[in-house]
Amino acid sequence: MNKVITSVRILTTTHNALDGIMLDMSPSIVVTAAVGLLMLLGLLTFRSASSDNNLPGVPQFKGLPILGAMPMYFKHGMPQLLSKLIAIGDDGISYVNIVNNILVSLHGPAMVREVLAYPEQVASREGDPGRMSWSPFYTLRRLIGHSLFNEVGPEISNHRNVFIREFNTTKSNSEKFDSTAKIATAHANAMTGEVPTDEVDIRSSADNFAIALWGETLYANPNYYLGGRVLSLSEVIITLVGNPWPSVCSEAKVRAKVADVIEKTIGNLVEYEQENPSASLKTIRNLSVMTGGGLTGLLSKFAFELANFNLFGGHHSIGSNITWAFVELDKHPRCLAKLMAEISSVDTTDFTNVNSNMPYLDAIFMEINRLYPTVHATVRVINREIKLDSSKKPVILKPGMLIYLSYLHLHTSPEFWDPDAGVFVPERLLGGYQKDQPFMPFGYGPRSCVGYKFAILAAKQYLVTLLQTHQVDVKDHDHEMRVDTLLETTKPVAVKVTHRS
Ligand SMILES: *[C@@H]1O[C@H](CO)[C@@H](O)[C@H](O)[C@H]1NC(C)=O
Ligand SMILES: *[C@@H]1O[C@H](CO)[C@@H](O)[C@H](O)[C@H]1NC(C)=O
Ligand SMILES: *[C@@H]1O[C@H](CO)[C@@H](O)[C@H](O)[C@H]1NC(C)=O
To answer: Which parts of the sequence bind heme (predicted)?
Structure first.
């Protein structure tokens, strides 16, 4: 343990100074030190194929000898490296070596769909841990444990179906509609109670709304967001997942906090159940019962994993939807006016209206999801050699290769959309997208998002409620995107909220 911690420190120092060291130290020392330490950490193993000519005929981004793009990856992170790869891969494919691991960028729609449709025996999120342990999904597993997110094996379709029934059907959403409306109203009203009201950080307000909503839905606890613990924990997890530098100390702290929050939350749920023996089951209990748990007491393994996962997933996506919607509506008053007209033309207390009779509202969220997919890229690790059928030239993907798939590129490249692909025009998605347009904000294939309907409905209800009750003015007009682990804004989006009288 101690040995590992020390090496992390050394490694961090090496990282910060890597460029400098490169200039005045013999390269072989750097290589030996850095590679040795990485191996110690289990970051690199030497089982993958040797690094030359791994993908004949495919453009290769040239890094340093032996290290490949490692210094760049450590210095700037994956998103930067990815954009370099996309820039050189004209046919939708390019690759780079990182020591002797191979990172492939696939950014042509057909190839992306092909890889996302592979069964887990061919490609999975984490890959084989003996061969590959640098997929970000691996860090996520260390932090929040095993979950539906990285689960593989025969049980997964059963678990997915349980989740889909609870969160991705019209019936389940209609049942959650009223409590969502109540929480949205409470949170919208609370905004004007905050001081000063012209500095509300819209993203954390919306994130907190989502946390409260999950708290109520899963655990009968609409106060789940209070104290900011859940929000700050999720921020830390998001940051660590995207960090190329594993930190043994901070990971252990996060795990302890996750366990602590979950223990208290489930404790509260059990108390609620004892006090309200005839109330209908809260969703986490229902999920637990459906996956083998009892009617009281401890949760099933699956429900427990979902609880862990929910500390990280499910609220920031709602917060980002809302944030970007306000950023774009601020720039396009014409769209805001159209939306306000639609809002006042229907009864928004009726589930069916909000769910399916507000085409302009739908188009706005689709356009937001096209331009700013929170999950801007995903990865797959190849487990079994396979020929990529949809590439122009013959390409064989080999075990251990890490495949990066950029949704952001697919969504915003004029190659697949109109020349104005970078501009917010909700009208282009009125009535849906064309089959040949690569629109995948919820992923694609057997691992697509299972909570999307619930999240979108919640985001729509929050936006509608807020606009009905408040005038919202975005303070600055220069917000841009920052590609990090997730897609973020360059700075917090402050809004001024005024109660409509
Ligand atoms: C769980 O929820 C489903 C609907 O989503 C319902 O049909 C089922 O009866 C619930 N189970 C329990 C034990 O309440
Ligand atoms: C909006 O929410 C959905 C569902 O959670 C998510 O998949 C999507 O990435 C989010 N989009 C934005 C722009 O935040
Ligand atoms: C969730 O619902 C949407 C809309 O009905 C559907 O397109 C999507 O495939 C569903 N997702 C899953 C995983 O079932």
So the answer is: 449
Of all protein residues, the one whose alpha carbon is nearest to atom 12 of ligand 1 is 286
**Residue range 78-107, pLDDT digits in tens:** 888 999 999 999 999 999 988 778 899 999
Asked if 70 and 177 sit in the same domain, the reply is no
Q: Is the CB of 289 under 6 A from ligand 1?
A: yes
464 pLDDT band, cuts 50/70/90, is very high
Cα–Cα distance for residue pair 463/325, rounded to 1 Å: 9
In-domain check, residue 67: yes
Q: Is residue 150 part of a domain?
A: no
The last residue of one of the domains, among 106, 137, 168, is 106
Which residue among 174, 433, 447, 452 has the greatest number of ligand 3 atoms within 8 angstroms of its CB, and so is best to mutate? Answer: 452
Shared-domain flag, residues 165 and 101: no
pLDDT at 220 over 70: yes
Residues 172 and 79 placed together within one structural domain of the fold:
no
Count of other CB atoms within 10 angstroms of residue 76: 14
Which ligand is in closest contact with the Cα of 411?
Answer: 2
| Single residue among 106, 132, 167 that ends a domain in this structure | 106
**pLDDT average, residue stretch 266-295:** 94
Q: From the CB of 458, is ligand 2 less than 6 Å away?
A: no
State the DSSP H helix or E strand holding residue 489, giving kind and residue range, or none if neither.
Answer: strand 487-489
Domain that holds residue 255: 156-499
Q: Which two tokens stand for residue 88?
A: 């050189």
How confident is residue 40, by pLDDT bands cut at 50, 70 and 90?
Answer: very low
Question: What would the mean pLDDT of 368-393 be, rounded to a whole number?
Answer: 94
Within this chain, do residues 172 and 99 fall inside the same structural domain, yes or no? no
Burial letters 297-307, b for 16+ CB under 10 A, else e: eebbebbbbbb
Residue 305 shares a structural domain with residue 414: yes
For residue 137, is it within any domain? no
Instruction: Give the global pTM.
Output: 0.87
Taking the alpha carbons of 205, 351, 375, 120 in that order, is the dihedral positive or negative?
A: positive
Residues 58 and 171 reside in one and the same domain: no
**pLDDT band at residue 155 under the 50/70/90 scheme:** confident
CA 124 – ligand 1 centroid, Å = 31
User: What pLDDT band is residue 3 in, cutting at 50, 70 and 90?
Assistant: very low
Both ends of the chain: CA-CA distance in Å? 61
Whether the CB of 448 sits within 6 Å of ligand 3:
yes
393 found inside a domain? yes
So what's the pLDDT on residue 319? 95
DSSP 300: P
Q: Are residues 334 and 465 in the same domain?
A: yes
Across all residues in the chain, what is the average pLDDT? Answer: 85
Domain count, the chain: 2
